[in-house]
Amino acid sequence: MPTTADAGTGRPPEVQRPLWQRIDRTDLARTVFLAACSVAVALGATWPWDRLPVIAVVGLVAGCWPILTEAVRDAVNRRMSMELSMLIAIIAAAAIGEWTTALVITTFVLAAEILEDLSMDRGRGALTDLMTFLPDTVRVRGAGATVTTVPRDQVRPGQTVVVPPGGRIPVDGTVTAGHSTVDQSRITGESLPVDVTVDDTVFAGSVNQVGAVEIRADRVGADSSYGRIMEAVRLAQSSEPPVQRLADRLAAWLVYLALGGALVTYLLTRDLTATISVIVVAGACGIAAGTPLAVLAAIARIARAGAFVKDGAHLEALSTVDTVVFDKTGTLTTGRPTVTRVITVPGGPDEDALLSYAAAAENYSEHPLGRAVVAHAQTLGLPVEASQNFTYSPGLGVSAEVGGRQVTAGNTAFVPGAPASFPNEVATAVHIGVDGRYAGSVLLADEIRPTSSRAVADLHDEGVRTIMITGDSAGTALAVGRAVGVTDVRADLLPEDKTTVIDRERAAGHRLVMVGDGVNDAPALAKADVGIAMGGGTDIARESSDVILVSSDPRDLVTTLRTARRARRIVTFNFIGTVTVDLAGIVLAASGLLSPVVAAFVHVGSETAFILNSARLIPGRQRRTPPR
Ligand code: ADP
Ligand code: MG
């Protein structure tokens, strides 16, 4: 049996079982027994039979045991709970000889608890259902053509793994040989299988379909998309967002209200039956159970779409956001720029020499611009010397020693003497300085992500403002802004300027999402109300963020935001609905218009309705590709 303990949770994911198998057998037996006792006592009441109280007492003891233990546990934790008030009502009913009433109320409470457990179970199941078992063992290609089979947790980044058709992909990586289609619906939410060939990225947990492929492992174990899902699932299940605490407080207040209302009713009417009805009718279980269910289900639904919310609290923050701040490079654009032109200066190095210098200086760079320069030099077959003393200044550029000369590569602010802009060019410029003198520029064009403008338009439809912030120059930034539909564009920003933008907007009363990918975005991601990282971005951006868009598709941000808002509407509806039903119920019960049994029915009926309302957010089951 494969386990996933190494992927971060320490426990294997549960597989969805059919409904009837998920009900706890003892709970079910107890409820059925109580229902039988209720019927027996109700029917028996029409016949003169003196054993009735015995059946009733046996039933009540059996039925109330779990309610009593819950009530005691809540009392020890100093929490006012539903169980306590129900227990009071049941005991009161039994005390005045209303056996049937006591039994029916108990049956309803037990049935409601089963419903609650089942719906939470389905919510959790929807999350864990996202996970596939990764293969236990992985075939790794060693030196030469030898292929060895090793346990999955021994695979290291950089190794080449071989995945046969039908096999599951064990790592996040890049295809180095072969081509195939892969089903990555569980990881990216993309329902159609995608074609992959050399240089394409694949994710752990997706299924290779038709061809054998070799994959260079980039991220393994807990670092892989799969590992991050496991972590998100673990956190999502254990988090207690503020709305949850609010729900618990409201639930406690409704219990006090019911008990207070009951006391007043008794003092005014001396009618014990009406008093019991008052206690019984007020049920806050709909919000006590419906709130965590809505949070869990929303996180599962968002995960299905390919985004991982690290905590319920972030989901809540997302639902009230009014502004989205986008980074440009790597977020609205693919961050895979290509060199379009090389500009030399009279008396300086020629094109090839300039590119060699630039590539040597950028050799250790993680920045997309740097990587593009290195890749371009390599494609041209230019020599790339080893460099020393590499330093990176986020938002500015890099510097290093190349063959005894000090080479800098970066923007206008970083390379003294570099021109501010090139006329008629929207490309991003990497200026090169050699020994403190401007020596030429490499121009790069970065493709805008095909879904960026759609995502921006959808956000505007949702009434959300958008801002673009970038370390790039104003010319390029405005051109990209125009193409994707963002009008508020702020360029030439250093990482600390990015956080200043966030601080100012927050001080102006806005609630912000920041979306970014780079090292330079990390401080801003941490400062925003919700930081969202592109899955393909840097590790530090992913660490500093609250939500990860695994497939780096900006549209997933829209899905995430919409789902968070829907969850908020559902929870709010449940809050208002519960308070309304409780208040109306208490008034009717106090006036003697509700018998205790009807009161119990109203309580459980409304509770069921609110839980089902939350359950609407649970995503449907996903088509499973059978493992071969
Ligand atoms: P963005 O905010 O759009 O993600 P960055 O803040 O990462 O962009 O970079 C801002 C600018 O700094 C770039 O447009 C580039 O001019 C310069 N720069 C940053 N890193 C490098 C690098 N490694 N090589 C060359 N230029 C760089
Ligand atoms: Mg960026």
Automatic annotation (TrEMBL):
Residues 134-233 form the P-type ATPase A domain. One of its GO terms (molecular function) is metal ion binding. It is found in: Cell membrane. The keyword Cell membrane applies. It comes from the Bacteria. Its main location: membrane. Belongs to the cation transport ATPase (P-type) (TC 3.A.3) family. Type IB subfamily. This is Silver exporting P-type ATPase.
